[in-house]
Structures are given as C-alpha cells and as structure tokens.
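Onboarding guide, step 5: your first structure request.
Type a short instruction followed by the sequence, for example:

Predict the 3D structure of this protein.
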Amino acid sequence: MTPCTTPTPRAWRYTATSPRRSCPPRHPISPDCAVKAPTRQPPPRRMPPPPSRRTRMSNRFRATVAGVAVVAGISMLAACSSTASSTGSAAEPEFPTKDITMVVPYSAGGPTDIAARALAKGMEEELGSTIVVENKPGASGITGLSELSAKKADGYSITFTPGDAFVQSELRTAPYTFDSFEPVAGIMTQPYIVVTSKDSGIASYEDLSDADRLTYSVSGIGTPTHINTEILTEDLGVAATAVPYDGAGPAVQAAVGNNVSFAMLDASGVMPFIASGDLVALAVLTTDGERLDYLPEVPSLTELEADVENMTLTIYGVAAPAGLDKGVREALRSAALAATESKTFADFAEANYMPMLDAETEANWYETLKTTAKATVKSLKKFGIELQ
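The system replies with structure tokens like these:
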C-alpha cells in the first residue's frame, strides 16, 4: 500500500462536542490510507488590521522621542563628565600657555621699572613663561592702569606698580576704580625718612618743634611726601612752608644743600646721602611701625607718637583686571611671592632700601590702599592742596 502523502484537509476539526469515533474519516482520495486523529491545534492567530495613518504617525513620534531621549541622556552624561573634568582642573588650571604682559605705568629706567623687571624675571622662572614688561607712563599712573583695566581678565595682562597709581582714581578723573582690579600680591614698601642737612643745626626730631618756622622740600604738589609732611608739621605744632620740586631727585638735593629746613622723602633717594654723612636721619615711617634694619638707631614716627594714622606709605604690588579665575590668581600670586626670594630681586630691594611686606600687611595691602585713598582725599581738603 502506497503511503499517504496528501495533507489532511483543514475542514475537519475535532472538538469536545464531536461524536466519538473509533477512527477518523478515511482520506477522500486514498480510502485505503489510514489517517491518525489530528492533534489539537491552537486557533489561527488573527492578524491585526493595518495601522491607520494616525497610528503610524503616533508610532513614529514615539520612536523619535525615544531616540531624542537616548541622545539627550548620552549628552547629559558627557556634560557631567566634562563638568567633573573641568571642576577637577579648576584647582590647577593650565596656565600659562603664552606670554604674559606686565604693564608698568611709569617711565623706563625709573625705580618702579627696575623693580618690575627684576620681579618679572623671577616670575618667569616660576611660571615657565615669558613676561613682557611694557612701560605706559602718563598722568601719575592713570594712563597705564586705564589701558590695563580694559584688558581681558585671563591672567595674561597684569601690572606691577606703587599704590599711588590706584589712589589716583579717587583724586582725579580716571576710567577705573579700585573695583576695576583684582589684587594678586603685595610685594614691598618704600619707607619715608625725615632728613635734614648736616649743616642745618637740627640734630633730632624733637629739634624740629623748637624752630619758629620751617621749610621743607617735596617731590610734587599732592604727593604722599607732601601730604605726610603737612600732617607731621601740624602734629609738631610748627608753621611750615612746602617747597615743591619736579621729582624726588631735586627735592633730595634741596635738602642736601640746606636750601630747606628738612624733608620727608623716599628711603631709596636719601639713603646714599645718609650713608655719606650729607644728610642726618631724624625719624622713619614704616608700615609696621618698627625701625628699619638698615637704620636701627633712628626712631620710628610710631615710637615718637606722631599722627601716623593719617599718613600714607608707598606699597608696591601686582594686580590684574577684575574677574580673574581663582586658580590663575593663585598661580600668579605664588610666582610673584616666590620671585621676591630670588637673588635678582633681593639684590634690587636691598640696593634700593625697600623691605618686603610683612605677612599681615601683604594680606591686606589692597584694602590698605583703599583706606589711603580716603585719607588722602580728606587731607587734600583739610590742607587746601590742589592737585596739578
């Protein structure tokens, strides 16, 4: 008998209500073919109708949103990673990566310029980058600081200057204020020394108060030496007349030549003549109120109970445009303070009789300048001094 190869028709189904049979029906074509009872099959799966246009659009929208969500998630992870990376690098920014410009708001060859170049050399060794010193003199320092205040606060434009240039913004018309700059580091100070000619007949600070009338030389109208000496003579209770000169050099020579009774001038200008015996030191004005190491026998005005509270001192410092990154500021600050310990700068400071700031003064040097500015404005009005 030939095996059956024709499939069983799908028309017949065995159900629970079907009559019992001992054998399923014979194959219609091959009656001799015995067909076993078919196994129970699950009902055919009904295919869903084709989606409508609206449904297709909805599905596409869901797919698009899902895709965007995935991309957004990846982007957020990348952003978080980037933020974490940048946060970690903020403590130690990659600085510097190019040359730095140091603006000096005074002429080349002067004491400020010489000090700036010595400091810049030491900072270069610390930072591993070139520092280009640019002299921008004019208007008592206003010209240079005006240009600096317009620079980007990225650490690549800084200044080294005495505080007088900052104070000028309170005394004259200037396009900047104290808030236009960020203090980086206080460096050193220029003490003032009260001197008289060896031929003046004045041997001590107390002798000044015994004079009927005094004259004194100043390096310019409204300068710190002028204002400080006005305060000094008022404190002594002595009538005195200021004799202005064009710069510190001529003012020193006037004292050496006994053309004036005395003078209160920068230590760097008078020390060579004190050393030679042409000038006699009567008192010193310092930031800490102590005597100078190189004039240990000369009392400080603080010791003598003079009105030093309203007097001002020249403080040199490094500053940059306001808004400087904290990490960049710390890099510059560390380099500047380290540079003061270099042989080049130490030799300059010693040769010019400029002591480094003590820790307390250094930490507050910029605030001290702000106080100085207010005191200066007050003194100018009090003594009727008109700036030229």
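Each response can be followed by summary notes, for example: The chain has two domains: 100-189+314-383, 192-310.
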